Amino acid sequence: MAQSPDMVVRTARSGEMKLHVQGDTKDVATKPVFLTVHDLGLNAHSFDQFLSHTSMQELCSRSVWIHVELPGQGVNTSELSSEYPSLQALSDSLADILNQLHTTYVIGFGEGAGANILIRFAMSYPDQVLGLFLIHPIVTSAGFQERYKGKFQLNRAPVNRKNLQMLVEAFHERNNLQPMLKEKLRCDTMLVVGDNSPFHDSVQEMHSHSNVLKCSILAVDNVNEPLSEAPEKVARALLLFCQGLGILSSVSTVERSRSSSSVSSNGIGRRLSMQELDRPRKISIRQHQDEVV
After folding, report:
1. CA separation (Å) from 218 to 129, 136, 171, 192, 214?
2. What is the mean pLDDT of residues 7-20?
3. Partners of 132 in the beta sheet?
4. What would the pLDDT profile of 55-84 be if each residue is shown by its tens digit?
5. Helix boundaries (H) for 14-85
6. Are 173 and 88 in contact (CB under 8 A)?
7. 184: closest CA among 272, 107, 123, 97?
8. pLDDT tens digits, 127-178
9. To 10 degrees, the CA torsion angle through 234, 237, 238, 242?
10. CA 152 → CA 11, 38, 161, 220, 249, distances in Å?
11. Contact 226, 192 (CB under 8 A)
12. pTM for this one?
């Protein structure tokens, strides 16, 4: 998968944010665009291993992936001197990133804290999000046990410890999004959780509070970390999710022959190209909606 040089984008509410782009940014108008946000203790390259898996090769070749690195979370990043932005500010900054890259809409792909930020983004900017594909999302406010455990996880991450502590504190100060899900999370959403994951029950609870017509859940049997332990299953679920959104229709699934690369359009006999099949059928853009509070 081709990679563009890493870049830095200045945002209004979160300062400079580093981007790791897989694919060509010149293709954002013609190919589906995925926007990723990583979990605590990780960085913009945290999804590289999953995306390099053989089961993801065809999907990745027909799309662009924009990986956002939260402020100060890169390897060998210097210590931040300013106050850390809130999760809502970080989510608002995603809109700045898309505007500067001339990207109209995205599929959000995030894990843990990154999933929370993407949910906020989808609630505030609904017409810039085609769908969300979330691994182990956390939407409730932080309890005492989570805050206590967080102090002992900092030493395990290969990032600046003070910067990570600032992000963890911002994450612990989050508000509870769960009561808002049915009303404000309007895009199609796929929740992914490992059957053996400590997040299993909370993800199931999130699903129960979501719009059942818009939100689906995949519990992957006998794994803790779906991306690393069951990449084929996650890749298949992602592809089917995207095809349900009306994109990447030219990409094959296991059951589908690779020779089926075009279909008729509306019964009038015109054959669609693979590039046309990969693009969404429709999209509309509105201005920024109310902030999630």
Report:
1. 20, 11, 25, 5, 14
2. 96
3. 108, 189
4. 999 999 999 999 999 999 998 899 998 899
5. 48-51, 57-61
6. no
7. 123
8. 999 999 999 999 999 874 554 454 445 555 678 899 999 999 999 999 999 9
9. 180
10. 31, 19, 12, 27, 44
11. yes
12. 0.85
- Please report, as a single letter, which amino acid is at residue 293: V
Q: Residue 41: which of 227, 198, 168 has the closest Cα? A: 168
Which runs of consecutive H residues, i.e. helices, occur in the chain?
48-51, 57-61, 87-100, 113-124, 144-150, 161-172, 181-184, 200-208, 226-229, 231-244, 274-278
Placement of tokens 């902030």 in the chain? 291
Residue whose entry in the numeric block shows the structure tokens 């060509």: 24
CA dihedral 37, 171, 124, 31 (to 10 degrees): 0
Structure tokens at 170: 């911002």
Which residue is associated with the tokens 């719009």?
A: 211
Angle at 17 between CA 77 and CA 166, to 5 degrees: 60
